[in-house]
Amino acid sequence: MNKELIKKTISSFRQELIDRNYSKCIIWQYGKICRNFMNWATSDDIRYFSEDTARDYCLFVCGTWEYGFKLPFHERITLRCMRMLLSSFKGEEFESRTPLVARPFQTSICNHVEGYLLWCKEELLLSTVSIKRRKNMLSRYDNFLFDKKIDLSDVTAYINDDFFYTCKLSYRREFKHFLREYFTYIYESKYIDKDLSSTVVKDSFTPRPEKLPSTYSTDEIRHAINAIDRSTPKGKRDYIVFLLAAEYGLRASDIVQLRMTDIDWERNEIKIIQCKTKKPLTLPLIASVGNAIIDYMRNGHPSEGGNLIIVQHGNTRKGKIVHSCALHAIVSNAIRAGNGQTAATHKHGPHSLRHSLASNMLKMGVSLNVISGSLGHSITQSTQTYLKIDFLQLGKCSLPIPLLKSELFKMNKEGTI
């Protein structure tokens, strides 16, 4: 790796934060950490930046290179900043999260955890994210058993309840499902003689509080679109991102993967394989979207991006794929610029535009089957959640309230029914 002065590395990192629209508060905070890092390096007569230098500084300040829940806030933010600085130096994407401290499997779970994860991938066809969540849960469970000096064969329902008590309430139901699935796998694979899935006691059903999706009207969406500055290359890109989310309801993961080869210009169609469901989705190519893509590819798209449409424009990562998390800032900035007051009380990420598309289609009387197909849902039940915000149709289902002086009111008051 080429040598680079620490001062130059920090300067490039700061510029990248500015290019990515990080807040002034974060830039100031990271700048302070970088200055402390530079003072430390100067005192040790270190002039050039390297991964070892970044690690040594984190070990000096935080005592670790990986995230830990017990770290004080200033150490967590230092760790985050230094890992981002290293990613900028390498020309890599910023980590969405600082990885947790990796603890190896220390009980008999280590003998079949890899087989279980492989089974999840090949038999259950789970995504990488789902497999990682299962591995993290098993790691926590393994550490719990190791700390308690309990062997897997001695697990009981009481022991498992003690483990779930250490987990956040929002994770318990999911963790119970994972652990029950794991116990079933090792029993059917003849790793153990007893089926331990019965030791994972099901929770009594407690309905979660209903959450209504945040939506925007067609006028509010139009105001947000008009607020985007299309005179710059980044503005042209952001305009496409917003249109894809608002007109098609595409997920952020599908937007960042869109390529020119996915567009059939002769048939005016967009054909993609959805990242979430792995199922094909065909959409009509709307004129406004097609024209925006042509304008961007001709007058703003970095040549380094190839046929990938949505790419970065920063100096160090020009032409690289945009992380799906970054789309939140693009959509959020447009919504805030066009609808300041509404954005303050609503969610304003790309998924809110997906909700808005479904809501506005319901208002126009479009059937659930058509909406489900447009959004790429695997089952119609996923689309039914939007019925909760179709207030026009819900109003037709309301029952008349009897007058207070009616016979029904008198009967209830006297307790005869």
Describe the overall structure:
The chain is mainly alpha-helical and 417 residues long. It folds into three domains: 85 residues; 92 residues, DNA polymerase, domain 1, CATH 1.10.150; 177 residues, Orthogonal Bundle (hpI Integrase, Chain A), CATH 1.10.443. The protein contains 18 helices and three strands. The chain is globular. The model has no long low-confidence stretch (mean pLDDT 84). InterPro entries: DNA_brk_join_enz, Integrase-like_cat_sf, Integrase_catalytic, Tyrosine_recombinase_XerCD.
Give structural attributes.
417 residues; mainly alpha; 3-stranded antiparallel β-sheet; 3% strand
Please tally the β strands and state the result.
Answer: 3
Instruction: Give, in spatial order, the strands making up the sheet with the most strands.
Output: 1-2-3
Structural shape:
globular
Major β-sheet annotation: 3 strands, antiparallel
InterPro entries: DNA_brk_join_enz, Integrase-like_cat_sf, Integrase_catalytic, Tyrosine_recombinase_XerCD
Domain Tyr recombinase: 211-399
GO molecular function: DNA binding
Pfam families: Phage_integrase
Provide a short characterization of the protein structure.
This protein has helices at residues 6-19, 24-43, 51-61, 73-90, 113-122, 128-148, 157-165, 169-188, 218-226, 233-247, 252-255, 287-299, 326-338, 340-345, 350-363, 368-375, 391-395, 407-414, and strands spanning 263-264, 269-273, 280-284. With 417 residues, it is mainly α.
Topology:
Layout: H1 6-19, H2 24-43, H3 51-61, H4 73-90, H5 113-122, H6 128-148, H7 157-165, H8 169-188, H9 218-226, H10 233-247, H11 252-255, E1 263-264, E2 269-273, E3 280-284, H12 287-299, H13 326-338, H14 340-345, H15 350-363, H16 368-375, H17 391-395, H18 407-414
Antiparallel strand pairs: 1-2, 2-3
Helix pairs in contact: 1-2, 1-4, 3-4, 5-6, 9-13, 10-12, 10-15
